[in-house]
Amino acid sequence: MVYTQVKSEYINKSNTATNYEFSKIDIPVLLGKNFLGFATAFVGPSFQYILNDDFEFSELTTDDFDKFSVGVQMGFGIELGNLGIDVRWERGLSETEAKFSNGITVDNRTDQIIFGLSLKL
Questions:
Q1: How many helices (DSSP H) and strands (DSSP E) are in the chain?
Q2: pLDDT digit string (tens) for 18-32?
Q3: Which domain holds residue 34?
Q4: How many domains does the chain have?
Q5: Which helix (H) or strand (E) holds 63?
Q6: Which of 6, 75, 95, 97 is the most buried (most CB within 10 A)?
Q7: Is residue 14 helix, strand or coil?
Q8: pLDDT of 75 over the 80 cut
Q9: pLDDT in tens, 47-61
């Protein structure tokens, strides 16, 4: 399970960029293959749930969004003794768009690169 904080932006009605942040829980279910004795490649689904956010646009909030989504992650990593380093690409697959009566559509799908650091105890 991974806790993530994301900062993003959208273009508001006055055509200026507005930032917003949200936090989510990711549960990736990845299958991997070890090679060269220290490297791993992996791929699989990732389940996300948005915990909280600060998105507001006029009278709209993210209460109008589906806060659960499914995505896919793929990447590779290396292990150097007890230290692990990996990089992943994640793309949301669920249709998690909010369409509002005033013609605004907000796409809440994730498209991100994730860097990870792990320590075996």
A1: 0, 11
A2: 777 778 898 999 999
A3: 2-119
A4: 1
A5: none
A6: 75
A7: coil
A8: yes
A9: 988 887 766 555 555
